[in-house]
Amino acid sequence: MIVREMFFYDAPLRDFKGQSKPKRFLLAVQCVFPVIEWAREYNLGKLQGDIIAGLTIASLCIPQDIAYAKLANLDPKYGLYSSVVPPLVYAFMGSSRDIAIGPVSVVSLLLGTMLQDVIDPVKHPREYRRLAFTATFFAGIVEASLGFFRLGFLIDFLSHAAVVGFIGGAAITIALQQLKGFLGIKKFTKKTDIVSVLHSVFSAAHHGWNWQTIVIGVCFLSFLLVARYVGKRNKKLFWVPAIAPLTSVIISTFCVYITRADKKGVQIVKHIDQGINPSSVHEIYFTGNYATHGIRIGAIAGMIGLTEAVAIGRTFAAMKNYQIDGNKEMIALGTMNVAGSMTSCYIATGSFSRSAVNYMAGCQTPVSNIVMSVVVLLTLLFITPLFKYTPNAILAAIIISAVLGLIDFEAALLIWKVDKLDFLACMGAFFGVIFVSIEIGLLMAVVIFFGKILLQVTRPRTAVLGKIPRTNVYRNIQQYPEASKIPGILIIRVDSAIYFSNSNYVRERTLRWLVEEEENAKEADLPAIKFLIIEMSPVTDIDTSGIHSLQEFRQSLKKKEIQLILANPGPVVTEKLHSSKFAYEIGAKNIFLTVSDAVAACAPNLAHDLA
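Below the sequence we write its predicted structure tokens.
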């Protein structure tokens, strides 16, 4: 049973009952390889849609892969390699029909930034490359382990607000990094913060900029942005922004070749090796100091990749009304990165831009990833020499146009309107990334998020309840101004479980409510408070510290001649109140099903006191 829950949790137990051993084995394999399930219903109609989608995303991914590899400080060929093996593995193991696999800008920058802090990619290119493969291997191990042991909830510690801020900050950082290629600057800072980058840009203004490079960059960036605008305005023209990057690469490469602009200072890609992915198993560090760095870098980059991929998969699954299994997705993503690390790939994940194009192009199954992989493979075998004269400026323009869409102003505005602490986490991640570093921005977001959780746990909300006119319903008087308080009775609702971390706060806050209400009653010449009713329906749990706090609270009220009454405690809380004997101390007559029942029971005593 434990094994079935761990490996085959999405397969109902009834599917295995009454089945022959071969059938059970097939069902078990199908849980790990969803391709077995959808392949049975595959037909020529679906193949046509997948081929069109695969060709479309291939035209987008080829120039992006070359550009993103440079973000990771790797040769362009490694970006292309990373769109061959990982998509093939995912196609057999992934449960999303729409996600397109490959290198992405944020993970590429994060990987490149963290790797160069350990090894200089210029002075020690081989060791740097080996560390990249090592980080990819351990990123895959972490991703697969999270899914294997059903620990996917850990990625939820990166809240939506934190991810919005982090990706927005990373997008600006990536765009600023591209100024090197966009302006033709040769000497550029290795730091990613905005101050260092802008200082490097303007210090090179007098002698380091190349006007031919700027002309190429501005012209094609304008073309890419116009193509993107056309695609947004008319969904049927989704293919325009999809083929625009490859079109830009072809035209700019041809222009540089016939004008020999490379001899006038325009920096070009130069040589890209032909051939399929070579084995890199022997290059992975499994021991030593570099292995330790690889585990750390891989774990961080892998978590970011997982967060992006799972979010993309769920988004498109909701649009097409089907379900994906988050844990299964993690296993698929982890397995493909482990396989990729052994075949000269760096970390791949789901790409939002490519997945959106894949969806718009009419993909039906993960076969579109296979088609894309085959096209990239053919490119590696036959076409890579044609990229020799591709200017770096066009790659910078492609990256800038791609990352601009990652800055989500609407989401940030919504976060501000909904939750100010979430907005603080969002801005913490944003400014941490652009002013310090990628890692610090991520750390700031997580710290703020945990601070928010700690604040909510230790300072739960409490509310004074009043009666809604002409009903027996009691609600928060701040939310419902028409709700009226009952003279002589204070009704408090605690909107949280009561634990050691907040029990003292709940007691002290309730006592403050009591003091305030007593003062108000005295000023208004109303009866003194005789009963304190705690509405406990939101209290899902209570521990020994919470019960001890209630006992102390009851004793304090007893000295004031105020009766403590509990209303609607849940089954877990009720069981613990009886186990601790507190239910007997307070008396069964002082525990009620509803607030209305509690108030009705208090009314005769209040009437007697008033008489």
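Confidence is low (pLDDT under 50) at residues 5-14.
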